[in-house]
Amino acid sequence: MEAGFPRSCDIFCSVVDNYGDIGVSWRLARQLAHEHGVAVRLWVDDLASFARLCPEADTALARQICRGVEVLHWATGRAPVAVADLVIEAFACKLPQAYLEAMAARARKPVWINLEYLSAEDWVEGCHRLPSPHPALPLTKYFFFPGFTAKTGGLLLERDLLARRDAFQAKIIQEDSRTPALSRGEREFWRNLGVPQRIEGELRVSLFSYENEALAALLAAWEHGAQPLTCLVPEGRALPQVRQYFGEAGELDFSPTAAVGLKSDPRYARGNLRVHVLPFVEQEQYDLLLWACDINFVRGEDSCVRAQWAGKPFVWQIYPQHDGVHLAKLEALRVRYTRGLAPGTEAAVRDLWLAWNGGADIGAAWQRFVARRAELSSHGLHWAQRLAANNLALNLLDFSREVA
Ligand code: TRH
Questions:
Q1: To test ligand 1's pocket by mutation, which of 16, 18, 239 has the most ligand atoms within 8 angstroms of CB?
Q2: Same domain, yes or no, for 139 and 175?
Q3: Residue 200 lies inside a defined structural domain of this protein
Q4: Taking the model in full, what pTM does it have?
Q5: Cβ atoms of 21 and 42 closer than 8 Å
Q6: Is 176 one of the catalytic residues?
Q7: For atom 13 of ligand 1, which residue has the closest CA?
Q8: Residue 22: domain span
Q9: How many domains is the chain partitioned into structurally?
Q10: What is the number of the ligand 1 atom nearest to the C-alpha of 27?
C-alpha cells in the first residue's frame, strides 16, 4: 500500500461519561491531521463536552473547523457523507447504519478500526489487531488496543512532546540561591495561572480525581505534614469534597479572565496545606500543569497517560466499575510500572495506589510514597522514554496500510 494512505479519516466518538472518550479522540484527530497530513473529520455527539477541551468550538454549529480538524455534530438522522479511507469508531461506539452501508458500497473498502480502551493487562496482546467480519456486509472491523508493550498498539504521543517537556522543565542553574531554580517556562506558567511561585521546601501536587473516600484523609495528612504542600485541583468532581473539607458550601463561579483564559480562584489554606482550584484548561495547558508539579494525581485513561509522559511520580485513580474488574486493571499497570524498582519503592506505590482506590490508611501510605520521590522521579523519566518507542498514531497508520 502506498505511503500516502490513508488520506482521510473519520473518527466517531460518543461521549459516555467524563472527558476520556472525547479527550482521546480529539488528541488522535489532531495528531493525524497535524503530524501526518490526514484530512480528519471528528464526529462527536456531545459538543458541550468537546468545547471543554477546545474552548473556541461553537456548540451550536453542525460543522466547523477546529485546529485543522473538521468537527461535526454527530446527530441522529444526519445524511451520510463520502466515506473516509480510515474509519475509527472510538471505544466501540456504533457507526450509523447509513454510513456502514456507504462503507460497504465503496469500491475500495475503507480500513475500519475499533479503537479500544487502554489496559496494561496481558490479554490485550492477544486481542490487538483481531479482525471481526461484519455479519451482513462485506466489511471487516479490526480491534486496535492501546497498551504498554510492543505487541499492543502503544500510546498516543505527539512527536515533539518529550522535547517540549524537557525544555519546559530545564532548570536554570542558580548559584547561591535558596529558592528552587525553576525554568522560565515554569515560572511563567504559575504566573499566568495566578498561582504563587514555590516557596522553599514546598511540594507541589496536582489532583484530578473522581469523588474519593480517601480524599479528606489525604488533605488532613497534607495539612498536618512536615512539608509545605500546594495542591492544584482542577474544577470538577473532586471539588465538592475539597470545599467540604474546608467547611464551605454553595456554588463556585468560574468565569475565566479574558486576558489569559485562566484564573486560579478560590484558594484555601490550613496548616501546611494550600489548595488552589483551577478551571478546566485545554489539554496542552493540562500537560504543563503535570510537568510543573512534583507529584500528579490522575484518573481514568488519558490523564493517566499524560502523567506518564510527564515523567513525575503519579497516583492513579482508575475509573470504577460495578463488578470491581477495574482493580485487576489497576494492578496490571502498577506491576508493569514498578518493575525493577527497589522493593520498598514498589511497595510504596502499591500502598498509595490501593489506598487511593478504596483501601485504607492513606496518610501513612502518602508518607512512604513521598519518601521515595527521588527514585520515582528518575524512574518516571526512564519509563516515559521506554514507552515512547511504541507510538499509537504511527502504529495505526502502519496497520491501515497493511490491511488496506
Ligand atoms: O474524564 P475521565 O475520567 O475519563 C474517563 C476515562 O477515560 C475512562 O477510561 C472512561 O471509561 C470514562 O471516562 C468514560 O479521565 P481521562 O481519561 O483522564 O480524561 C480527561 C481528559 O481531560 C484528558 O484528555 C485530559 C483532559 N483535561 C484537560 O484537557 N484539562 C484539564 O484541566 C483536565 C483536568 C483534564
A1: 18
A2: no
A3: yes
A4: 0.95
A5: no
A6: no
A7: 20
A8: 8-156+390-403
A9: 2
A10: 24
